[in-house]
Each structure stands twice: as C-alpha cells, then as structure tokens.
Design brief:
This protein has 175 residues and is an alpha/beta fold. Helix content is 38%, strand content 16%. Strand 1 and strand 2 form a beta hairpin.
Length: 175
C-alpha cells in the first residue's frame, strides 16, 4: 500500500489536473515561493478546503491547518497540514521533525499533508551533503559507512544502488 497520495487524488484539489505544467506561467513558481505562510498560503488553502476556522499558531501549535474538510477518492477524513512559506527557502528535516513527531499524537488522523514552495531536502541527501562539506570532497560509500550509523546500504535501498544515488546527486537521474 502506497502511503503517498498524489495531489490529484485529493477531491479538494482535482482541479490541478486541468492545468498542465507546461502551460503554467514561468512567473508562477517564483510568485508562490514569495507567499507568506500565515497571511497568504494558509488562507488560500483554507479557501479551497472551504474551512474558515483558523488553527491557533504559537509554541503549542501542532499543525498549521487541522480540518475534517479533506476528501480523497470520495473518502472523508481528518487532515493535518504542515506548511512552510517564504521564510523557509530550503526545508531540512530538523525544520519540520517536531511537527511530524506531534502528528503521532492526533487520534483519528487520516491524512497528513506537507506543503512547501521551497526546496525540500531529504535526510539521505542532507547527510551526504553534510559529510561532503566536512570532508571537503565527494564522500564515498566507505566514508558514509565510517561516519554514520545509517550507512550506505540505505542509499542502495532508497535509490536501487549506490551508483543510482550518485547519478541522482549529480542531477543525472530522478529519485
């Protein structure tokens, strides 16, 4: 069972299918990256969801939007949205881990949605890049195995092989 649901499977967002990526204005992506999370991005999503009840923000905040207005393939469910806006041009696991951890505490949660217009670094890539900076060179499989408990086997598992991971790092393969 795949736990990742493409946006077009959400009944609330089915309209995205009507807009092929090739037809989008090149100005759209930079404009979306400039949206303020609380003042623009969140209200826009709430208007699509037809949920006008704001979720309180602050240190006790679990998620940015908590709603029962989400439908996937006709199935309703409680949803939690974690949003990152223009203040996060690059999102690292450490930027969202506390919110993801808190999702486990929500009884009856059916959907968790993470939305961000910035670059999202995955943990494997971040670990690799951190070691590259530390060594001041491109890490090898042996370097990963020497420096981290999560060793090179995870890269082979995630990407099919170490070589495919290296191609992805070089931008020559899709993840």
């Amino acid at each position: 069972m795949n736990l990742l649901i493409p946006i077009e499977e959400f009944d609330n967002f089915k309209g995205v299918k009507d807009f092929p990526i090739a037809d989008l204005s090149p100005d759209l992506i930079p404009a979306v990256k400039k949206l303020d999370e609380r003042e623009e991005f969140e209200p826009f999503l709430r208007s699509i969801l037809t949920d006008t009840s704001p979720t309180p923000h602050g240190p006790a905040e679990i998620v940015d939007i908590f709603t029962h207005q989400v439908v996937v393939n006709g199935q309703h469910g409680m949803a939690a949205f974690i949003l990152k806006g223009k203040s996060f041009p690059t999102i690292r696991p450490s930027d969202v881990s506390h919110q993801i951890y808190r999702l486990k505490k929500i009884d009856g949660l059916k959907f968790a949605i993470f939305a961000a217009p910035g670059t999202i670094l995955d943990a494997a890539k971040e670990q690799y890049e951190r070691l590259a900076r530390k060594l001041n060179r491109r890490p090898t499989k042996l370097d990963i195995d020497r420096h981290y408990l999560v060793n090179s086997d995870i890269y082979a598992t995630l990407f099919g092989s170490w070589k495919l991971f290296e191609l992805w790092i070089d931008g020559k393969a899709n993840a």
